[in-house]
Amino acid sequence: MSVSSGSGVPVQSLDPSSVVDDRDYHYNVSDEEHSGQKNFSTVDLPVTPQVRSAKLTDDGSLSVIWKNETTTTSEDQSIHSSVWPAATLDYWADNILTGERLSNFTPAKRTLWNRAKYNALLSHGICRITHADWTSSSNPAAFERALDQLSKTGLIFVTDVPNKEDEVERIGQRIGMLQHTFYGTTWDVKSKPRAENVAYTSQFLGLHQDLMYHEPIPRLQLLHCLANSCEGGESLFSDGVRAAYAMQIEHPELYNVLTWFSVPFHYRSKDGQHHYEAQWPTIEIDRKTKYIKGTHWAPPFQAPFRMPFPGLVEKGGFLAKWKEAAAVFHAMLASPENMVKVKLKPGECIIFDNSRVLHGRNEFKTGGEGDRWLKGTYVSPQVFTARQYRMQMEEDGRPKRRIRLRGMDGKVTIGGDQNDTTRLLKSERSQVKAMLGLLED
Ligand SMILES: [Fe+2]
């Protein structure tokens, strides 16, 4: 289809099928003026809408009169026109026609870390932000820098947090809506009798990720330290994606097992009110691109294997292979050189990416002097992704990373600032090779 300007000169060629598709989303004539939502159904439209005329007006908006279209909500059933403002057309040019949408959001290249690397970042003031800078709208650059560091490393510290119970909510809401779970919108991590969760005891808590049995799995976890004067109780963190790449490089066969063998997780409360189940491979990859999306490791909430098919439990069977691979993976995660150990101080709040960063805690002493109290909350994957995407849009008006651009001639090209998953994979793998001493950094 050729779109003409007022003078009749063709200004742009459009693929009719994409116009139909986009019109379905941006049918502005019938959109409710304020909400921007559609007030008709796709089934009201003809299968093959035809354009009677189209022109680009002086203010840059596109006006189309449809030939054969009627809709049930249209007052005039014989003639229907659509007008798209210039800003909408620009948005399409940068986004919809090129396939760039929030659902295609490509994350930033991650900074993978072991203990030495993460501590070096901290010593350079990276991954640390004051509460004032995080919460104040007067210093957006500081907040955006910290959010970027969170996207890349999966672990940041907010410091100088007031000693108030509701501060963790305020910190989380700077990113977006908090994720409510059956633990509540916020929850307390402190030792209590007859605890329903091992986190609420004083015992050693091995590396794990939270709520692997829950959908959606919370993406970010925030823990604000209100008191930590007990002996012990140091927090432990390990980068699961770094360990996954190390498995891929050093033990490719075992790595493969961890990417396809599904491990069941569950939670059943004693009163029967909460019963959740889900299963995930230990290392989750994008099947098409092989990009490592994250890890799933939560021994306390692992459910019994219930797959009684031949070869599961025999020596050399599937379960035996997974156990072998999982043991190597865990040893990598928990080795001292890969684990960051920190005793949180009152006034500190950690924010970490639960899809990738495993956390745990050393045993702490109770009953005598001292107290330990952390207040936590979660942010969902969707809210975190939307916040990262919004930050990119605010920075330069459009997402920095383009994916694939299909030209009007049908040829696919890659945008100059593309950062697709193949490139991410190569770069992230190189980081881990350097850490393993297999490559110069
Ligand atoms: Fe936890």
Automatic annotation (TrEMBL):
Keyword check for Ribosomal protein: no
CDD domains noted in UniProt: CAS_like (cd00250)
Transmembrane segments: none
UniProt GO BP: carnitine biosynthetic process
Record keywords, A-Z: Dioxygenase, Iron, Metal-binding, Oxidoreductase
GO CC aspect terms: mitochondrion
GO molecular function terms noted in the UniProt entry: dioxygenase activity; metal ion binding
Cofactor: Fe(2+)
A Pfam short name: TauD
The TauD/TfdA-like domain, residue ranges: 133-378
Top-level taxon in the UniProt lineage: Eukaryota
Cited InterPro entries: AlphaKG_dependent_hydroxylases, TauD-like_sf, TauD/TfdA-like
Segments for region (Disordered): 1-22
Record carries keyword ATP-binding: no
Similarity annotation: Belongs to the gamma-BBH/TMLD family.
PANTHER family (alphabetical): GAMMA-BUTYROBETAINE HYDROXYLASE-RELATED, OXIDOREDUCTASE AIM17-RELATED
Name of this chain's protein: TauD/TfdA-like domain-containing protein
Biological source species: Bombardia bombarda
